[in-house]
Amino acid sequence: MADVDAAKSLSGLLNGIAQKLYYNKSDVTEELLQRELYAHLSREEFRSLHERMRGLLKSIAAADMDHAQLEAFLTAQTRRQGGGGLTVEQAAALSRFWRSQRVRVRESLLAQSRWEPGLRGLSWRVDIRTAAAGGRGEADPGGPVALMELELGQAGQDSQFVCLEFDEAKVNQLLKKMSDIQESIDGIAHRT
Length: 192
What we know:
With 192 residues, the chain is of the alpha+beta class. It is 58% helix and 15% strand. The protein folds into two domains: 2-112, no CATH class; 118-191, no CATH class. It has helices at 2-22, 30-37, 43-63, 67-78, 88-112, 168-191, and strands at 118-128, 144-153, 160-167. The longest helix has 25 residues, at 88-112. The protein starts with a helix and ends with a helix. The model has no long low-confidence stretch (mean pLDDT 88).
């Protein structure tokens, strides 16, 4: 009976950690979890257990471990020497938890990593203005103009549209900035 209670408490702890980390439930606190699940442990004992489970769960989620990776990871954790390892029961609870929550945690991590509003679509074209259309004070009334329409939106909301107009000089500036950004990204990617 004690093993069943221990398994339920650990399952509750893992769910509580996931609620706070991945599902934005700020009312799930470390103190609440201790009071409800591990009242018999000292504050330090609980904090140690909580941090260990939190760290393991974050590692598993960050790697988005499949079943084989998870089993290898948990086996390695149970074989660790010196008090930092897992018991077989803890490994089983982590395995059960991850199998049931993997998809939901992954979706939450993806949602947290998106910028809002996001770019839903982009369309563009290049027009040539005629002399008759250039009467609005443009320097080159007959020159090319690039028109770009951005479709922006947040999840669950209607799109908003932004229309941008660029002359040849502005297009060249934009291309230069994009080239600079690409060089910066390449520099960072090659350093790591």
